[in-house]
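Standup notes, protein team

Yesterday: finished cleaning the Nonomuraea pusilla set.
Today: Beta-N-acetylhexosaminidase structure.
Blockers: none.

Input for Beta-N-acetylhexosaminidase:
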Amino acid sequence: MSQSDRGLRRLAAGTLLVAFQGTTAPDWVSRELEQGLGGVTLFGFNVHGPDQMRALTTALRAAGEPVISLDEEGGDVTRLAYHVGSPYPGNAALGTVDDVELTRRVYRAIGSDLAACGVNLDMAPSADVNTEADNPVIGTRSFGADAELVSRHTVAAVEGLQSVRVAACVKHFPGHGATRVDSHLAVPVVDVSVEVLRERELAPFRAAIGAGARSVMTAHVAVPAVTGDTPATLSPAALTGLLRGELGYDGVVITDALDMHAITKSVGLAGGAVLSLAAGSDLLCLGPLPSYDDVTHLVAEIVAAVRDGRLPLSRLEEAAARVEALRAWFGAPADAADDLATIGLDAARRAVRLTGEPRPLVEPLVIEVDTPPTLAVGDVPWGVGPWLPDAEIVRVGPAAADAAALLARAENRSLVVVVKDAHRHEASQKLVSSLVAARPDTTVIEMGLPVWQPGSAAYIATYGAARANAQAAVELLTPLTPLAG
């Protein structure tokens, strides 16, 4: 391979953020980092604990200068705490409190945890304005439905993360909040005018850019007024025209995972990579599905696209310069800040909302109504079980649950029902309604968005299913013996 060929391959590899299975990096990742690979994206299956994470990221740095990223939003979406649930409430809870200094401190704590593990880029915060209550993928990941509220908290989140030299990645441009389709599965459409887009969807991104956000993530959503039926990730009108041109953004643009069906089922993984780079992205996030063979094929396809004129060489050089500037900005791994240790629980306590009055608990039966996890969240544990050790906890699928049998089991006992986004699941509503009709003294805990309320004696809204949210809810049921932080 000639020197020019090696240089072109290095530029192509430098656009990729790859994923891998396991808690140590396979040999091929180390080899590729030595040859210019852009970096890695880590998932819950890569995480065992802080010491293991620090060892993993140290090994990755020994092979190159990688961007080391993951999704740590707090709330439902966590990678560091994937196996136990996040100690921080997510955006919906923070937006409910509406204290920008609190949001800044929570994200500074998250950034401190990431820096201590050697992670230098957080694929957060979500800047989506969640105007569609039935949104299957955003929901509690958004600060709310008001563009001004989302804007000010997005700025606070960016400032909090970047105060400890962890780059924020503001997502999902140009906005995923007004959709009813999960882009992991198909191409959602945001069918609004350019004027509405500017005033609503783009407002938080404009604010984040003004606050110095180091990176922005694209959305696999089509905005007919701007992109036609093309996802924004593949659209020059969205990335070069709107983001670079109109909003004046010159930081790093990172794609949402290219292995999502919105891309793979339309133009394919390799086709999506080339089209997205041509449209204006700088780093291609591959997600957990592509193999090493896929990675080598992608690099070869990007090289071929440069040679046959589909992708200008100048685009790869521009991307490399932006990523190099980001690397120069990164801080060294640092210890976690002790003074931020309790901020998550403090924030969750401020966010939780109680309607009615819970009855004193007597041999409580807790029915947790199962909700299928989204692909963005994954199979993160949720519920109140860890905070009610003396209760009987029953996890049920709503469609198959026997309400009469559950009611018989709860006779002469306190009944607590825990749901998550019940407004999106008719079977959950039906089950909870039948339980509350027979037992109006029931306490219902909603760990998603509190859109649907069943009229129970007490109703607790946590605005998220993080571990901290659950503890804050249980403290309202046991007010005389609050749990330690």
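Follow-up from PR in the comments: The domain at 352-477 is CATH 3.40.50 (Rossmann fold).
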